[in-house]
Amino acid sequence: MLLRRIEKYLTETGMPWTKFGRIVAHDPRLVADMRNGRKPRPDLATRIETYIQTQSENRHAL
To answer: If we measure between CA atoms, which residue out of 43, 47, 55 comes closest to residue 21?
Structure first.
């Protein structure tokens, strides 16, 4: 589930959920809305997955 991956990423990085939404979707309420049932469109879901994957790879490369 996408929201679960987002929550895990936020926990691991300590990033505020509003900042994550702003970076990925230019929407600081994205995570809060998803917690309340919002389903992102496929293009946004892909962008979220790509961001998390890229950032995780960058963290592990250090």
So the answer is: 47
Measured distance CA(38)–CA(45) in Å, rounded: 11
Domain boundaries defined on the chain: 2-61
pLDDT, tens digit (0-9, with 9 covering 90-100), for 8-47? 999 999 999 999 999 999 999 999 999 999 999 999 999 9
5 within 8 A of 49, measured Cβ to Cβ: yes
d(CA 24, CA 21): 5
Short-list 57, 21, 28, CA closest to 6: 21
Place of tokens 């929201």: 3
